[in-house]
Specification:
Elements (H helix, E strand, L loop, with lengths): L1 H17 L26 E11 L4 E10 L5 E7 L10 H9 L3 E5 L14 H16 L1 H7 L7 E11 L1 H9 L3 E2 L4 E2 L7 E5 L22 E8 L9 H9 L6 E10 L29 H12 L3 H22 L3 H9 L6 E5 L1
Parallel strand pairs: 3-4, 3-5, 5-8, 8-9, 9-10
Antiparallel strand pairs: 1-2, 2-4, 6-7, 10-11
Length: 351
């Protein structure tokens, strides 16, 4: 009997050792992140916070922050022009997001308006901004030699320019918007697509007329929102929409986001909501508190931050789809753009 039991146990142990194990469902890999969402991509991102090149022609250094995918391979390049009062360190939410999906993002600091009052901004100021963008494009080889981590990472055939506020004007000028009298064109043939966030409409003092957008041939996306107002009372959302309305037809997009204020495009701050009274909190131990009032309070506190996340997520998703469509010729990006107007709180127009 003892011998039989020993043989049985030996066979059982051998079977356990050799039998295939059932897969552990709890250790399954997480589901892939949807590309057009608020979530970062899978590419690890490297940062050069203060890359510098000497502009001998203008006698000064041009400083920039660079976000780039760490993995191997050549990637499209996006140059981002910051708004008034900001610098190349800003807009990290957007630049890191784009880099995590395979784009190199260079954000130069525009020295020309660092110590200038907004009221004193002149056409000379934004011409100098355009010169910053063109200087970077002229010196991509030198940049890669000075910073070896960038070597071979930039696909110079796929270049886009984006900008916010005064940076939107910079991007539009590089993309073919003209100033008057003249007209004067600042277009750069190396640039293949443009995103203008909080764009300007006609402004005579800056040389922007209704004819300024009539010769824009590049794919261009204009992003604004119903709270996108500037310091000047004339800088209304309706004024910003005119950049799209006055543009020549052909791959022009307007993305109008409900709840998006001027700072929604910084990548750090969302909308600037109108002040609202803080909701009265109900003590759950209050014997007079009903289940309905407690449920209503729970829903209100859970959704207080939702508008900011929704607006930020929309900006990231739609801008990435635009880059994919026009820098990478990705049909999925174009398909997303075609359906982007179906998202709640977003108006999308194309011509």
């Amino acid at each position: 009997m003892t011998r039989r039991l020993t043989i049985f146990l030996s066979l059982a142990l051998a079977a356990c050792a050799t039998a295939p194990r059932n897969p552990d469902m709890t250790s399954a890999a997480p589901a892939p992140v949807a590309r057009y969402s608020a979530e970062a991509g899978s590419e690890p991102v490297g940062v050069i916070p203060d890359a510098t090149l000497r502009d001998t022609q203008r006698g000064r250094d041009v400083t920039m922050t660079i976000d780039y995918p760490i993995g191997s391979g050549s990637h499209p390049l996006i140059l981002f022009s910051h708004g008034y009062g900001a610098n190349g360190h800003a807009y990290v939410g957007l630049s890191a997001h784009w880099a995590s999906y395979g784009y190199v993002v260079i954000k130069p600091t525009h020295a020309s308006d660092q110590n200038v009052k907004l009221a004193d901004i002149t056409p000379a100021s934004f011409r100098d901004r355009v010169a910053d963008i063109k200087f970077v494009l002229d010196n991509l080889d030198a940049l890669q030699k000075r910073y070896p981590e960038l070597q071979g990472k930039i696909d110079t055939a796929k270049i886009g320019v984006a900008g916010h506020s005064l940076g939107a004007l910079t991007a539009m000028l590089v993309g073919g918007v003209r100033t008057f009298p003249g007209p004067v064109s600042y277009a750069d043939p190396r640039v293949k697509a443009v995103i203008a966030m909080s764009p300007q409409g006609p402004r005579e003092s800056w040389g922007l007329t209704k004819d300024s957008w009539s010769e824009v041939k590049l794919p261009m996306m204009y992003m604004t929102g119903d709270r996108d107002e500037g310091i000047d009372k004339s800088e209304t959302p309706e004024w910003r929409r005119q950049a799209f309305e006055l543009s020549a037809a052909g791959d022009k997009w307007l993305v109008f986001i409900a709840g998006a204020g001027h700072l929604a495009f910084t990548g750090r701050l969302g909308v600037m909501p109108e002040p609202a009274p803080r909701p009265t909190m109900i003590d759950p131990n209050d014997p007079f508190a009903t289940r309905d009032t407690l449920d209503q309070q729970r829903r209100r506190t859970q959704t207080l931050g939702d508008p900011i996340r929704v607006v930020s997520g929309t900006i990231k998703a739609v801008s990435l789809a635009f880059w994919d469509a026009y820098l990478n010729a990705d049909t999925k990006g174009r398909e997303f753009l075609d359906k982007a107007g179906e998202r709640g709180g977003v108006e999308v127009k194309k011509k």
